[in-house]
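Sync notes, pocket subgroup
Present: LS, DG
LS reminded everyone that the earlier model was apo-only. Rerun requested with adenosine-5'-diphosphate included. Inputs:
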Amino acid sequence: AIPLVVAINTSLAARNGMLVRDRIAMERARTLDTVVFDKTGTLTEGEQGVVDIATVDGVSEDEALALAATVEGDSEHMIARAIREAADERGLERGTATDFEALKGKGVRATVDGAALRAAGLSRGDEPRDGERVHVGGPNLLSELEGGMPTDLERFADRAGENAQTVVYLIREGDPVAAFALADVVREESYRVVDALHELGLEVAMLTGDSEDVARAVADDLGIDTVFAEVLPEDKDEKITELQAQGKSVAMVGDGVNDAPALTRADIGIAIGSGTDVAVQSADIILVKNNPMDVVRLVKLSRASYRKMQ
Ligand code: ADP
Ligand code: MG
């Protein structure tokens, strides 16, 4: 049988917009030390838009955008959607490509038809190629590629990073030829969440695949204590383990497929209700109203109820 206090709690939680999949998690919430948040889509709106483009000599913004949109194919990633939207807004035709591949936490890759490249005015003017490998991706992808970064693109990325904008690169045969800056908006509630968790004596951390610069800018803005940036999806749960090894009881809050292993690993996994199915299925508690402030309510509710029990 379910102890009465737990049953009461669960219905209280439900009334507060929380769906409790693991009742014990409700009880554990009162002893938490650290709350770790995913950045994109959790602390931020996650609706990014392309706000700036830089290209190397000989490549126009339109060419770069059309090619990037081609390579993103039908990827569901928010960055992919933003790039396709920007290309559509400019009325750009997409080229043809094959062998689409998603590189989790890094970017995408496809083989672009040489003839299509030339037809779109995207050929570099050198010998026609049968198939050219083109990537679009961020810092985790760059660290794998050998090509050097053109100074112009490097400067563009530094400036964007300072403004908390995410930068992804268009890379042809290993050489970066353009960069796109994407702006996301920090959710209004996120400021209050961090303050309220601090008031409850909890530590707040951020875990993201995005660049160190962007993560730092958002964390500083919000007053977050610890930042884990440029973390690959398969390494996210290790960061939770690191915190647990320091003797901390850890909650993870996330929305993406990438967050699932970390949600499972955490002492309490909390999914944003509008998140992906995989995240929701990996969580102990689901925030139905998509409001991160409900994390604060969860801790308060747990402390209030279980105090009575002792
Ligand atoms: P987060 O941890 O912030 O939710 P992801 O793990 O989904 O982010 O992605 C991490 C990084 O990988 C992004 O910031 C971006 O640099 C790169 N990336 C992932 N998917 C794509 C894509 N479809 N197009 C371009 N870049 C991508
Ligand atoms: Mg996310």
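DG: The chain has a mean pLDDT of 89.
LS: The chain has 14 helices and 13 strands.
Action: DG to write up.
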